[in-house]
Write a structure and sequence with these properties.
Oligomer: single chain
Number of domains: 4
CATH superfamily of the largest domain: Nucleotide cyclase, GGDEF domain
Distance between the termini: 59 Å
Pfam families: HTH_30, PucR
Structural class: alpha+beta
Radius of gyration: 30 Å
CATH class of the largest domain: Alpha Beta
Protein name: PucR family transcriptional regulator
Organism: Domibacillus aminovorans
CATH architecture of the largest domain: 2-Layer Sandwich
Number of helices: 20
């Protein structure tokens, strides 16, 4: 097979533009097929790249939704639209579909001939299958069957080591050992030292070939590493997603490796690449299940009560006693970063945290533009909170570019109540996000007062409430200096000496401003009642100004930010 990424690099496909679903470019194309009517579901087996000019594309949303649902069920590899005649552009709903489920949506001009595209793709698929069969014919049947049934890179190493009775090793680009199998009867070796010696020899050979204008690395081609002393070695670099990400090695301490070893390594390399692609497909499928589970819980809880057990089983979730929902947000950025990088990092760390923390089960996924974390646990609430605070500290320690913000709803006794925990976290988010320069972990249980005051407010209500508290003279452009002075006073507990220094003004100037502020407020700033309502008004500022944290931009994955939200009261 060939991946979508590899297909669009073929000469005949150089006019292809990826419009959506870039995360799914690793999907394997089993065959390319032209859509000739508006219901293709019964003619699919999975892995097809579908081509259409849009002539028979459904014109009503229900029909389009049914068609796309069928494509999803069969896990197609992608959809290619020829635009310019029946369609001016790829349908927006299809672009959304591609982004959501990591299914590439491709586009070519209408004049591009489908026959040339399909011929080029099919020719490459057949060529690869022929080379693979030709290779297996030269190897022992027992070895190819064992390698072909491998489910992991460790399985590949084990099958090679057992067949040839010699060490099999996989290293990363930094020559760190990822997987290894060393037969029990093999003599003890210092593997890191041995691998450093072999990679040094391999690099020296690469330099020699570079001077001769001869490439040392050809994709999937084994390299015999010349050594004057044992171990004898042979390596095959693995190219994944266009980059050399690891190397498969065979070592022998007693005799040089021969052509059979080279053929076996070459075949094993194809198996490793298939395993990698299959793991990515499993990851995307699990992500799809996670997204669907969130949609059921938060948008259709009645349906969730029927399907929840099945979805939990597919995701390997345990039905524990306690449930929580919340968000893990990038927070303040010390340097500009793309949102995709931030979300990938935070998602990976949260996943590792779930896997490594005893008593914690669940998953994380991007939902409604936020990295959402669902937790199932048998632990006490205080223990869960401590673990989440440790997660925050860990992320802050190892990732200096961002200051994370964790926001969680209250703990619930059953999974159907997760929607309540989710809504609490959602209401709390604009009140706490970016409020603390050091980030932090916030919990709805500790912020019930804020949720009662602001939780149900939209920006219009917040604006109206704020305008009732503060006079127009302070909120107008002319009153901006007085308003900033009021904020500074509230922030420093109305200590005039500290405020004067913070604003770099004389105390007489501050006294004049305070007189003007009290005139407009018709009250004294020393009044506890007045201070209370001022704090409420300042806390409403971010809600009134549409501060909602961040959202996703599908075009360039940039972070949308606003001004700083309020400090929690």
């Amino acid at each position: 097979m060939i991946t979508v990424r590899e297909a669009i690099l073929l000469t005949e496909l150089n006019n292809v533009t990826v419009r959506a679903g870039k995360r799914g470019l690793f999907r394997k194309i089993r065959w390319a097929h032209v859509i000739d009517h508006d219901d293709m579901r019964h003619f699919l087996e999975g892995g097809e790249l579908l081509l259409t000019s849009g002539q028979v594309w459904p014109q009503d949303k229900p029909s389009e939704d049914r068609l796309l649902k069928g494509f999803l069920q069969h896990q197609i590899s992608g959809i290619l639209f020829a635009t310019g005649r029946y369609l001016d552009e790829c349908p927006p709903s299809v672009l959304e579909f591609g982004e959501k489920y990591a299914i590439p949506i491709l586009e070519v001009p209408f004049h591009v001939q489908f026959v040339k595209l399909t011929h080029s793709i099919h020719q490459e698929i057949v060529k690869r299958e022929y080379r693979k069969k030709e290779l297996t014919a030269k190897l022992p049947l027992k070895l190819t069957e064992k390698l072909g049934s491998s489910n992991s890179s460790m399985d590949v190493c084990r099958n090679l080591a057992n067949h040839f009775n010699c060490p099999a090793v996989i290293t990363d680009p930094m020559n760190k050992v990822l997987d290894k199998i060393i037969p029990a009867e093999e003599k003890r070796i210092n593997l890191p030292q041995t691998m450093d010696h072999l990679i040094k020899l391999l690099n020296e050979r690469s330099v020699d070939h570079l001077h001769e204008n001869e490439p040392i690395i050809a994709e999937g081609q084994p390299i015999n590493v010349s050594t004057k002393t044992s171990p004898y070695a042979m390596a095959v670099p693995l190219q994944i997603e266009g980059n050399y990400s690891r190397t498969l090695w065979l070592l022998n301490f007693y005799q040089p490796l021969n052509e059979t070893h080279a053929l076996a390594l070459k075949y094993a390399a194809t198996v490793l690449l298939d395993i990698h692609l299959n793991q990515q497909i499993v990851g995307v499928t699990n992500k799809q299940f996670r997204t669907e589970l969130m949609e059921l819980l938060f948008e259709n809880p009645k349906t969730a009560s029927i399907l929840m057990k099945d979805r939990m089983h597919k995701l390997g979730l345990t039905a524990n006693e306690n449930w929580m929902a919340g968000f893990v947000l990038p927070g303040i950025k010390k340097i500009p970063l793309s949102l995709s990088i931030e979300l990938d990092f935070l998602s990976n760390e949260c996943t590792n945290w779930i896997q490594q923390t005893e008593g914690i089960d669940g998953f994380c996924a991007v939902y409604e533009g936020r990295l959402t974390l669902l937790i199932s646990s048998s632990l006490e609430y205080s223990e869960i909170k401590n673990h989440l605070k440790n997660l925050y500290s860990h992320v802050q320690t190892i990732y200096k570019q961002i200051v994370p913000v964790l926001v969680f709803g209250e703990m619930k006794a059953d999974w159907l109540s997760l929607v309540e925990s989710y809504q609490e976290a959602k209401s709390l988010t604009p009140l706490v996000q970016f409020s603390d320069p050091a980030g932090g972990a916030y919990f709805a249980e500790e912020s019930r007062g804020e949720l009662l005051l602001y939780g149900g407010m939209d920006s219009a209500k917040a604006q109206e409430f704020r305008n009732l508290i503060l006079p127009e003279e302070l909120l107008s452009e002319r009153g901006s200096v007085l308003y900033e002075t009021l904020k500074c006073l509230a922030a420093h507990n109305y200590n005039r000496e500290i405020v004067a220094k913070a604003l770099h003004i004389h105390r007489n100037t501050l006294r004049y401003r305070i007189d003007r502020i009290e005139h407009y407020l018709e009250d004294s700033l020393s009044s506890s009642k007045c201070q209370f309502w001022i704090q409420i008004a300042l806390a409403l500022e971010s809600l009134a100004d549409h501060i909602h944290g961040y959202s996703l931009e599908t075009d360039d994955d940039k972070l949308i930010e606003g001004a700083s939200p309020p400090t929690i009261l």
